[in-house]
Amino acid sequence: MKASFASVYEPGPEGPAGGAKAAGAALARTRRLSSGCCLLVLFLVVSTARAERLATDGWRVEPEAARVVLDGDVHTAWRSDGPQSPGLVVTFDRGRPVLVHRVALRTGDALSAFARGLAVEVSADGRTWATAAVVETLNEPDLDLRCNPVVGRYVRLRLTESAGYPWSLAEVSLYGSPDPGALDRETVIALPDEATPPARWAAEELRYYLGEATGRFPTVQAKGAARGKLVFVLGPPPTAAEATKLKSLGEEGYLITRAGSQVRIVSGSPRGLLYGCYEILDRLGVKWLDPTPSGEFIPRGAKLDLSNLPVAAGPSFTWRHCNGWSFDQMPRAWVLWTVRNRINCIGQAAGWYAHLDRYLGATPARGRYLYGHYPHSFARTLPGYLFKDHPEMFPERGGKRVPYDSVPGGGLQFCTTSPATQDYVVNHIVEVLRARPDDLYSLCPNDGGVWCECAECLKLDEPVLPEVYSDGRPNARSVSDRFFSFLDQICRRVDQALPGRRILTIAYSNFDQPPRRVERLPDNLSVDVCQYGCSSHGVNECERNAEMKRRLEEWTRKCADVGIYDYTFDQMKVQKLPLPYCRAINEELRWLAGIGIRAYSTEGAGSGAGWLYSPWAYWVMARSLWNTGPSAASLTEQFFTAYYQEAAAPMRAYYQAMEDHAYQQPVCWGSYNNVPTADKFPPELLATLRRHLDSATAAARQPLIRERVARQVEAIAFVEEYLKRGT
Ligand SMILES: [Zn+2]
Ligand SMILES: [Zn+2]
Questions:
Q1: What does the pLDDT read at residue 201?
Q2: In whole angstroms, what separates CA 454 from the centre of its chain?
Q3: How far is the CA of 6 from the centre of ligand 1 (A)?
Q4: How far is the CA of 679 from the centre of ligand 2 (A)?
């Protein structure tokens, strides 16, 4: 079910201006938002370019030497005379009351000299102080704190902990409004009685962005204390009718209704509640375009229109994933982009979901964690050390049973027809799932596709079909029948022991074909089908994808829960290659949803660099995964308008020239590891792209927009250089 309304919010109820009195606002909670290790430089850009940082002139700073924290230069820092001790303060005096609802701090070059514990306080007179935010234990040099709006002439940072180091501050950014009357006393966001961390996060997101976008700053209050002309009630218990409706929307669905002064956001889960809040912000025009701190777009002076309620919505895909590699350290900004664009998994599916728990709550639609490693897990299920005592469970090669490591590279699979193997695997899965009630089990072959040659296994492979893959690779022997016959057995036995508990596998390599020997796979099996072929056109759009399309249709007839494992953003070699994929992504996802596929995952953005050279593609994917309704043209237009602002028209033309070329010739890009080639970028296309980029460079005024245009200039220079060199 989709949201049935289309118009944007228009002018709505607004309370009278609040008085400019010293803040007594208690803070629901403090949060650290930014840390983005490799994104520090970009952070400065957002502070000045997008979010409403209060002007840095007109402030008196005490001690006087700390004036450098407002100079915009992260390499100039103030440092305390002695080591950190509680009570040490830096005070900012604006000379008149202002409204503050966010404070961002940067330590600068002396990384270890960050504050160990900190309070942000405000005052009308410099004598009586109210607490705006407290962070008890700090372990990062940079800090981004948001709080209910507070009004005061003075803002001070006060240490609450001791440390052997001095205290260093390079930059302080205060956000809010120079007009204390911008405090909106009539609009309140009411937390549920027992607010979980995701509910608090939802409230804080709604509060912060409503304030930034409308210029009227509401507060978050406990439900019992919430009074106002407009009260957003987060997570009230659903009525019987609402509960029925929510059930049809799935666990991530939500209803937004209005009754008098109350706007109720009703959901069946914390995640649904958060997504309901993002729906309101989305209608306001707030967008999170790329995964950097400067990637958000906030339309200033936006008006909230609640005339189009009620809204009922849920996702087109229940499992949404668009950056599928793991990272040593996931930048916080990536996590936030993911959460805010309603993607519900990040990184490699098994482990990284934990990054999202605090925002989304537990239990995504496909099970909380995928136990057993995803996607390659045979050797974890049946470990190699068992070979010594149980060679009969291991593969036969050249007439005898051999251990996994007899084939270099780890691509050898256990014997799937051995009764001993089947017993062991069933017992192991049942034991794991008993101990982990929220999980599903990932049972996927090792990466490599070398299989047992015992007579029983070989027998199941006949007849051997097909002889080539859809993208032309030879397929020496399809083992789909033996593999899915094995899974058929395992899933039935697990279901007998633990009814309803699920197993996930992949259809990949030489087991990517639907099995012929199994008419219908058990309902407790989910299959992620790996998608090969052409990425510049949807699976439903291109001759080169015809076999893949047929295969997916057959999979959906054989299996109740088919997902996709794609390679769309897998740019291992050439991160700077711009990908003209918006239309292909949007068309394909709509078609996949149409044949009943509800889970989608794709590799990419491993090092993160590639994302920023094709930010449109990730954004269009996230939007289309949530709702396949809007067209590629409308999404692309929205993206370029917000992302390139004064340079939007030439940048849109730049992108469109690439996409049109891919469709009109047509030119099929591969599944992954795409590199620049002359058919993708012929000389006349490159000349057109250069011309649009020249116009965009001339049009770009803001530093952030200049930087974004320059990145595409760099991308096309890279393409030209690559074509010249041939590597
Ligand atoms: Zn075998
Ligand atoms: Zn194609």
A1: 94
A2: 45
A3: 57
A4: 13
Q: Cα–Cα–Cα angle for 73, 76, 77, nearest 5°?
A: 120
Instruction: Convert the pLDDT of each residue in 89-121 to its tens digit.
Output: 999 999 999 999 999 999 988 878 899 999 999
Model pLDDT, residue 210: 97
pLDDT at 47 > cutoff 50: no
Does the pLDDT of residue 362 top 80, yes or no? no
Closest ligand, as measured to the CA of 421: 1
Q: Which amino acid is at 411?
A: G
Ligand 1 centre to CA of 507 (Å) is 19
Neighbours of ion ligand 1 (CB under 5 A): 415, 417, 452, 454, 457
User: What residues pack around ion ligand 2 (CB closer than 5 A)?
Assistant: 534, 537, 542, 544, 668
CA dihedral 337→340→342→346, nearest 10 degrees, is: 30
**Tens digits of per-residue pLDDT, 455-505?**
999 999 876 555 555 455 555 678 999 999 999 999 999 999 999 999 999
The Cα 101–Cα 217 span in angstroms is 8
What is the 538 CA–ligand 2 centroid distance (Å)?
7
Ligand in closest contact with the CA of 588: 2
Ligand found nearest the CA of 533: 2
DSSP structure string for 391-402: GGGSPEETTEE-
Q: Is residue 441 within 8 Å of 371, Cβ to Cβ?
A: yes
Pairing of strands 599-604, 319-321: parallel
Which neighbouring-strand residues pair with 504?
442, 526
How would residue 410 be classed by pLDDT, with cut points 50, 70 and 90? confident
Q: Which domains does the chain have, with CATH numbers?
A: 1-177 (2.60.120.260), 179-314 (3.30.379.10), 375-501 (no CATH)
d(CA 382, CA 171): 54
Instruction: Report the alpha-carbon angle 152-155-157, nearest 5.
Output: 155
Whole-number Cα distances in Å, 513 to 219, 458, 473, 492, 586? 55, 17, 14, 21, 25
Distance of CA 649 from the midpoint of ligand 2 (Å):
27
State how far the Cα of 455 lies from the Cα of 113, in Å rounded to an integer.
Answer: 68
**CA–centroid distance, residue 557 to ligand 1 (Å):** 28
> 713 CA distance to ligand 2 centroid (A)?
26
Q: What is the rounded distance in angstroms from the CA atom of residue 485 to the CA atom of residue 416?
A: 9
Find the 454 Cα to ligand 1 centroid distance in Å: 4
Question: Relative to the alpha carbon of 486, which ligand is closest?
Answer: 1
What secondary structure, in 3-state letters, does 583-619 show? HHHHHHHHHHHHCCCCEEEEEECCCCHHHHHCHHHHH
